[in-house]
Design goal:
The protein is mainly beta and 803 residues long. It is 11% helix and 38% strand.
């Protein structure tokens, strides 16, 4: 337990889960003023911002309606297809706050979890710094600029002028902000690191490195006491160390403890422990910080693939971008948690955070739900993909942004790999290899407990020098074909037999071949579809494809996700169920005319789309005409019935790619599929012809939420007929109102070509449904959401907000 000196970078970053005595951390999200556009001298404390709009954070102005319109979209937006035709610009935030005079001897820190992008920050008129990258956390020590016992003003200017991202980024202070008050001698921001270097069934060694900073003027004798709590909250270990710390000389207290009969963290049993770090000076407790961690082991090799806790494990993965659909990029904790819950429920056990570090709330949710994470740093290095993207800042900022990613993620057991980049333009050149080596070397100096990877496209032997810098090779679009004939994997394995591979991006249309390659090759550890969750921007790649001559607007969603922006499963998600789970069954119908206008310029290599199929049996006007019905199934065989009459039995196994296709003359009624194991029915599902809607159904995802001005409730609205069937053709305009202390944070319907407002208290249904997102206030009590539409009875639902 010998204290050691800390590299200087570690005092520059933050730690989460902080609960202090004399040190305090306060959520700083409420009561900001916002102005869209420039404004001279607004950083001055005397500036009058009383006419500016009041907002709470997280905030994203690009998802809001453009001035004078009822839509966030514009066909002439600078972002065009990449940003989903949303608009950016410059925005300015101001907040007035006080710091008690009693805090004069303490350090005052302002921490931003994420601002998109190019943030400049002033406190009381003094510029305290800037931060270009939109996806990493940063902070400033503003002690010197604070008026103790008086009024303080913080001003943040954010610039997102467009052409800096290949997808929707959002604009503004879209993640949390924190105000930290620290004793001069304190745990450094980002200064607790917990690892479990040795694990067995009967014991685990837990190493806790706690960095303490002395910003006083004289040496201080400090005691660091660390308690370990098991998932039930019982104490299972305690260590104490004392050391004198000279002024401005950070010291690392390295402590080891043994936990007997440890509960391993895994995807099925995500057991979380807590390290409670306490700082004592003169016997008085000055700071307490809680850090959650998991006891788990990971390993990678070409012979046995990836192992979690010593057991072979295949990664059922998906990629996702940063936004939260109808909320834009606003990173409410509940939005991040819900995303993880729904991905896990759809079979995903691993997520690639493409192409930037996620929020702490997302990583926390992955820890709690047992979802593995590839935490990715960048989409480009020295050479850009857009004129004003991160390549302008990489040379000067990469080290700080890598540090922020690692220090924010290193205590999360869910994180199993760091990715240094995606489809880096210089990946095949000596310059790119040298940069990769530089990044890997530096990253391993911060955290050597995880594998390092990168997602690479344009695969071939010329990428071998680049892959040689990595622990695990990420292959973008590796497979090709429909039968698992992964020639790229096979050829590369013959050439470099020690290489561990995974498909870091795969096409939805090649789901079968991509997953069979994972099953068949031990050195291929997983498949990550593009994408697990749909997103704004890269508009229409799931229908029109890339490199079209025009005609994209009003498309604004990618329309390629397994799960749409409202959180509802799309057809390919049901097919993935059949690949990943036993006894699955789902029925889809090919429309007699395309769901959207056909595009003759669709590129043959553009395979982010899925087959044009729908999940309903409403085809008036096509009576007795044959319709193609496809069943996705992991049952041994399926039988299809139309109004009780069998249409035949077909196998659904690997030989049929877990699909069965029937041609069925349309008749209104019920289309029922039955799945069999041998001759025993094991699953059944029905499509019923829906009649005219007669009622509105409202279903909240939770009946109780926290009254903290942050928590969300997602309410699904469905237009149903007299038998309770959703009418898939209903597109009524629905109006909403709220009673109680809550607001509507967003509305949506997942229609990829809708340009409706996400902010108004109304939304057209699409495929018979739409979504309302309620945000709690602070008063607590009953919240009532009411929905009304023409020719339908009014409906309402209650949700309780508790303090």
């Amino acid at each position: 337990m010998t204290p050691k000196r800390l590299p200087f970078f570690i005092i520059l970053f933050f730690a989460l889960h902080t609960h202090a005595q004399t040190s305090q951390t306060v959520l700083f999200d409420e009561g900001w003023r916002f102005h869209l556009g420039g404004m001279q001298r607004c950083e001055q404390p005397s500036f009058d911002d009383s006419k500016w709009r009041q907002v709470d954070l997280p905030h994203d102005w690009s998802i809001e309606d453009r001035p004078g319109t009822q839509s966030p979209f514009s066909p002439v937006a600078i972002s065009q297809v990449s940003g989903g035709f949303t608009t950016g610009g410059t925005g300015i935030y101001r907040k007035t706050f006080t710091v008690p005079g009693a805090a004069k001897a303490q350090r005052i820190i302002i921490q931003f979890d994420g601002v998109y992008m190019n943030a400049d920050v002033w406190v009381n008129g003094e510029n305290v710094g800037n931060h270009p990258y939109g996806y990493t956390a940063f902070w400033f020590d503003v002690t010197h600029a604070i008026h103790y016992g008086g009024t303080n003003v913080i001003t943040v200017e954010v610039k997102n002028e467009g052409q800096n991202s290949r997808w929707y980024s959002g604009s503004g202070i879209y993640r949390h902000v924190w105000l930290k008050t620290l004793n001069p001698t304190h745990i450094a921001l980002g200064g607790v690191s917990v690892t479990t270097p040795q694990i067995s069934a009967t014991s685990a060694t837990v190493n806790i490195n706690t960095t303490v900073v002395n910003q006083d003027k004289q040496p201080i004798l400090v005691t660091v006491a660390t308690k370990l709590l098991n998932p039930s909250g019982a104490e299972v270990g305690k260590i104490s160390s004392a050391q004198s710390i000279a002024p401005n000389q950070p010291i690392v207290f390295s402590q080891d403890a043994t936990v007997t009969n440890p509960q391993p963290w895994g995807t099925e049993t995500p057991a979380l422990y807590t390290a409670v770090s306490e700082i004592y000076i003169g016997g008085k407790l000055y700071q307490r910080e809680n850090t959650t961690f998991g006891i788990r082991s990971i390993s990678f090799d070409a012979l046995e693939g990836f192992k979690l806790n010593g057991q072979p494990f295949k990664l059922k993965g998906g990629c996702f971008h940063n936004d939260n659909g109808p909320l834009g990029s606003k990173a409410y904790d509940r939005a991040e948690e819900r995303k993880v819950e729904l991905l896990k429920a759809s079979g995903f056990n691993a997520i690639r955070c493409s192409h930037n570090p996620p929020t702490q709330a997302f990583l926390d949710a992955c820890d709690r739900n047992g979802v593995l994470v590839i935490d990715e740093a960048f989409d480009m290095w020295n050479y850009g993909k857009n004129p004003y993207d991160y390549h302008l800042y990489f040379k000067d900022w990469w080290q700080r942004d890598i540090e922020s990613m690692v220090l924010g993620g290193r205590n999360h057991p869910a994180v199993i790999m760091w990715s240094i980049g995606n489809e880096i333009p210089e990946r095949g050149s000596p310059e790119g290899v040298a940069t990769a080596k530089m990044l890997v070397t530096y990253l391993k100096s911060i955290d050597s407990t995880r594998a390092i990877t990168s997602a690479v496209n344009g695969l071939g032997s010329d990428k071998d020098p680049y892959f040689a810098q990595l622990d695990v090779a990420g292959y973008n679009y590796a497979v090709g074909g429909d039968h698992g004939q992964a020639s790229i994997y096979d050829n590369d394995h013959k050439r470099v037999q020690s290489r561990v591979m995974y498909c870091s991006e795969s096409y939805p249309l090649e789901a079968f071949g991509s997953w069979m390659a994972v099953i068949d090759h031990p050195y291929v550890i997983g498949d990550f579809v593009w994408t697990a969750w749909d997103y704004i921007g890269e508009a229409s790649i799931g229908w029109l494809g890339y490199w079209q001559s025009g005609g994209f607007y009003p498309w604004n969603l990618a329309y390629c996700g397994d799960i749409d922006i409202c959180g509802w499963k799309r057809p390919q998600s049901y097919y993935r169920d059949a690949l990943w789970k036993s006894n699955q069954l789902a029925v889809f119908v090919k429309p007699p005319v395309p769901s959207y206008p056909a595009n003759p310029e669709l590129q043959s290599w553009s395979k982010w789309n899925w087959d044009d199929v729908v999940h309903h049996w409403n085809w008036k006007g096509y009576e007795n005409k044959p319709l193609q019905v496809t069943i996705y199934s992991s049952c041994e065989k399926v039988e299809l019935f139309l109004n009780g009459k069998s249409q035949g039995i077909l196998p659904t196994d690997r030989s049929s790619k877990f699909m069965a296709t029937f041609n069925v003359p349309y008749q209104a009624g019920e289309l029922t599929a039955v799945g069999y194991s041998g001759n025993k029915p094991v699953n059944e599902t029905t499509l019923a012809t829906a009649t005219k809607p007669v009622k509105i159904s409202l279903t909240p995802d939770r009946k109780m939420i926290q009254a903290n001005r942050q928590d969300l409730c997602y309410v699904t609205l469905e237009l149903k007929d007299a038998k309770g069937n959703i009418n898939p053709l209903a597109e009524s305009l629905v109006h909403f109102s709220v009673a109680g202390d809550a607001t509507i944070a967003g509305v949506g319907n997942a229609n990829p070509t809708s340009t409706e407002s996400y902010q108004l208290h109304q939304r057209k249904a699409w495929k018979g449904r739409c979504l309302v997102i309620l945000k709690a206030g602070k008063q607590g009590g009953k919240i009532t959401l009411t929905a009304s539409a023409a020719n339908l009875p009014v409906a309402s639902v209650d949700v309780d907000a508790v303090k």
